[in-house]
């Protein structure tokens, strides 16, 4: 983490964004919303599949939402209601209307902090954000939400931003804003240019503050019957459809499942009356014994069971364990590659206690036919959250070896993640897709698996957090670590897996700029690792390196140097001389030495690092450029201004091309070029350079950022005939 220029990691971040955008763009941008809408049409009972989407029974609600999009000052709107009521479908219909009149639309999953962070980052890129803004939003810096909304305010008026499935309002919080959107300073705000719409099951108005709350409930009998008759026109007449609609309480998802069941080849109950009879006793009992929301969930559960029973009777009994398995994951698209057919049908010793699941494709076809899953994009399957809850609930019943299903869900995800190198940008899009599913396992499954599978799940979380941190997605990395650490009580604070998670958490915290908090975390991790692993273990060395870096950031140069030297000494015979960690430590040692004025010694260290980095990484790698920067700075400190300026101008071109003209690292070069111009007697040029950097830093970093203040001081001193030395961090 604390490497030369790893804190910005712009080269790999840019690759990550390009790769991820190819995969998730269709979920988020207006250009790809058509794909998302097509998927939604098969997900809820409000739409009758086939042909154009037709919203049934929600026209008044849609009109209310459309009116909100036309206001001069648009407070955010929250569409609340029970699961399966059609919130997402109504939001999708609103999106279609906004697009039809020329407005831009973005669709962001707010299912969890990881999905939200990835969505916001991609939206920022689609709005044309500079790389430093994209990076700040991905990292979740203190001002990330401010940056995001400044970008939105530059978009042509009339846009719509949907935060879908924010059932846990904490996902919408920022470091300075409470859960939900109570104070309108977090990720969801009011705007004069467009509407932010949140869909959520959370109905407590205290969570939503000043937002306009709209509630969605059951459909009336006429509309509910219409949905049933259009889904299954041969299943009976109007009166029979109305009777079933009453029995299902007008619940859209239950209506959709009933209609899909009745029109499928699986059914033995081909009429509305037969289905009503089959579902009736359970429904009546639930009405008497449960609150309305719980009864709706039980109603859906009964509909799910009816369809699974029918599939089993038709010779597809494996549909049940497959649904239980996919229900352990999130309601976002599940990559089909995650469901390894060879693993699922393999011998018992490859699956623990899970019974074989053969004929996976046949099971998936059956589940699609009865509406229990639908095709997601790209190349995955999606389970409605309410259906998923029913699938998980069935694991708590008298099924044989229910723990085996949960264990298999963990093992499949762990195997997929284990095959993805965390430090390779090409793997980061896959990590982005798998992140929500890992969080779902942590929330729904971690407390119900044995110790071995819990460790496997937490190790997978640490590996994924490593990838997120390397890719610049510090906010997602922090959220993942915090959620995982909430499930470690059984293991204890000193367990090596717990320590790996806490190390990754410290990395993410430092990446967000909270150095004191990160230092405390690292020290505690180091104390535990030293006791268990000894002073020369690679994990101990990495911890010690990070503490040396934090000392350097605090200008404790002698302390930093001592720490780096100790790490290098104890690394001998443990890590290869070309190991990336060794090269980073050697570079930062040169940085610490140079800042103590021992320039000849620092130059010798850095020249050796440059030679090795050119050989190992190549001339255009960001870390190689970082070492060239340190060497150019040393030339300037020695008064060799002409040579230094040549080096800086080469670096300016390379960094501007790689990172962008306004990237903070590019601005460091611009600032130091002004410093060189001042020392070479070109005062007017130096003043113009400082003014240019100051304007850019104010815009990019803010007025109170330390680097902005450094430029203010340098400019003011120059106007009084004094030159301030230029310094920077790695």
Instruction: Enumerate how many helices there are, as a single number.
Output: 31
Structure class: mainly alpha
Oligomer: single chain
Radius of gyration: 29 Å
Which strand-content bin applies to the residues? under 5%
Helix percentage range:
55-70%
Low-confidence stretches: 1-53, 285-295, 348-354
> How is the largest sheet built, in terms of strand order?
2-3-4-1-5
Notes on the structure:
This protein is mostly helical and 730 residues long. Among the domains are: 10-215, P-loop containing nucleotide triphosphate hydrolases (Rossmann fold), CATH 3.40.50; 221-420, no CATH class; 646-730, Tetratricopeptide repeat domain (Serine Threonine Protein Phosphatase 5, Tetratricopeptide repeat, Alpha Horseshoe). It contains 31 helices and 8 strands. The protein has helices at 10-28, 33-41, 59-69, 87-100, 113-126, 131-139, 144-153, 221-231, 238-247, 252-263, 272-289, 292-313, 319-327, 341-344, 360-369, 385-393, 402-418, 428-444, 451-471, 474-485, 496-511, 515-533, 538-553, 557-571, 580-594, 599-616, 622-637, 641-659, 664-679, 683-700, 706-719; strands at 77-80, 105-109, 159-164, 194-200, 212-215, 334-335, 374-375, 380-382. A 5-stranded parallel β-sheet has the order 2-3-4-1-5. Helix 10 runs parallel beside helix 12 (292-313) and helix 11 packs antiparallel against helix 12. It is globular. 53% of the residues are buried. Residues 1-53, 285-295 and 348-354 have low confidence and may be disordered.
């Amino acid at each position: 983490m604390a490497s030369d220029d790893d804190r910005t990691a712009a080269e790999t971040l840019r690759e990550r964004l390009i790769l991820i955008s190819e995969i998730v763009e269709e979920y988020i941008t207006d250009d790809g919303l058509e794909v998302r809408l097509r998927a939604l049409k098969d997900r809820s009972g409000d739409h009758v599949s086939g042909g154009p989407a037709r919203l049934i029974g929600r026209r008044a609600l849609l009109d209310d939402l459309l009116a909100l999009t036309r206001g001069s000052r648009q407070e955010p709107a929250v569409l609340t209601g029970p699961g399966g009521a059609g919130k997402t479908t109504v939001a999708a219909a609103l999106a279609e209307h906004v697009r039809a009149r020329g407005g831009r639309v973005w669709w962001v999953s707010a299912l969890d902090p990881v999905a939200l962070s990835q969505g916001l980052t991609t939206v920022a890129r689609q709005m044309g954000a500079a790389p430093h803004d994209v990076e700040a939003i991905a990292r979740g810096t203190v001002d990330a939400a401010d940056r995001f909304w400044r970008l939105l305010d530059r978009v042509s008026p009339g846009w719509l931003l949907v935060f879908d499935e924010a059932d846990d309002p904490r996902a919408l919080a920022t470091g300075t804003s409470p859960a939900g959107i109570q104070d309108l300073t977090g990720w969801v705000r009011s705007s004069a240019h467009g509407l932010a719409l949140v869909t959520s099951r959370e109905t407590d108005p205290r969570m939503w503050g000043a937002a306009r709350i709209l509630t969605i409930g059951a459909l009336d009998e006429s509309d509910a019957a219409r949905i049933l008759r259009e889904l299954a026109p041969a299943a009976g007449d109007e009166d029979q459809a109305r009777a079933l609609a009453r029995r299902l309480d007008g619940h859209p998802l239950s209506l959709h499942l009933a209609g899909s069941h009745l029109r499928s080849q699986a059914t033995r109950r081909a009429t509305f009356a037969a289905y009503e009879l089959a579902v009736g006793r359970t429904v009546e009992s639930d009405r008497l014994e449960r609150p309305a929301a719980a009864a709706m969930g039980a109603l859906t559960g009964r509909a799910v069971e009816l369809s699974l029973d029918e599939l089993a009777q038709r010779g597809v009994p494996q549909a049940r364990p497959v649904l239980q398995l996919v229900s352990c994951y999130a309601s976002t698209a599940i990559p089909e590659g995650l469901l390894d057919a060879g693993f699922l049908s393999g011998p018992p010793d490859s699956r623990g206690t899970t019974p074989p699941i053969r004929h996976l494709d046949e099971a998936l076809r059956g589940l699609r036919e009865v509406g229990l899953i639908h095709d997601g994009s790209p190349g995955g399957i999606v389970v409605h959250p309410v259906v998923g809850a029913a699938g998980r609930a069935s694991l708590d019943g008298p099924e044989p070896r229910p723990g085996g299903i949960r264990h298999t869900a963990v093992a499949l995800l762990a195997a997929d993640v284990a095959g993805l190198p965390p430090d390779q940008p090409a793997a980061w899009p896959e990590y982005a897709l798998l992140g929500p599913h890992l969080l779902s396992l942590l929330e729904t499954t971690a407390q119900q698996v044995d110790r071995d599978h819990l460790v496997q799940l937490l190790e997978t979380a640490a590996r994924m957090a490593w990838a997120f941190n390397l890719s610049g997605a510090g906010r997602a990395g922090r959220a993942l670590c915090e959620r995982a650490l909430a499930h470690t009580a059984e293991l204890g604070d000193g367990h090596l897996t717990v320590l790996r998670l806490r190390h990754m958490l410290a990395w993410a915290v430092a990446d967000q700029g909270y150095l004191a908090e990160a230092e405390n975390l690292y020290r505690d991790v180091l104390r535990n690792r030293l006791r268990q692993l000894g002073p020369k273990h690679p994990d101990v060395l990495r911890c010690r390196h990070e503490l040396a870096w934090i000392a350097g950031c605090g200008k404790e140069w002698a302390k930093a140097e001592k720490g780096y030297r100790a790490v290098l000494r104890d690394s001998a015979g443990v890590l290869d001389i070309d190991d990336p960690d060794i090269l980073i430590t050697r570079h930062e040692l040169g940085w610490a030495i140079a800042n103590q004025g021992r320039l000849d010694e620092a130059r010798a260290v850095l020249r050796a690092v440059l030679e090795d980095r050119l050989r190992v990484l190549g001339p255009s790698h960001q870390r190689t450029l970082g070492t060239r920067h340190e060497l150019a700075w040393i030339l300037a400190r020695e008064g060799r201004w002409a040579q230094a300026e040549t080096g800086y101008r080469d670096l300016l071109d390379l960094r501007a091309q790689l990172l962008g003209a306004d990237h903070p690292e590019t601005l460091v070069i611009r600032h130091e070029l002004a410093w060189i111009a001042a020392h070479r007697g070109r005062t007017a040029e130096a003043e113009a350079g400082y003014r240019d950097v100051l304007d850019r830093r104010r815009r990019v970093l803010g007025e109170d950022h330390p680097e902005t203040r450094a430029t203010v001081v340098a400019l003011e001193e120059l106007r009084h005939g004094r030159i301030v030395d230029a310094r920077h961090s790695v």
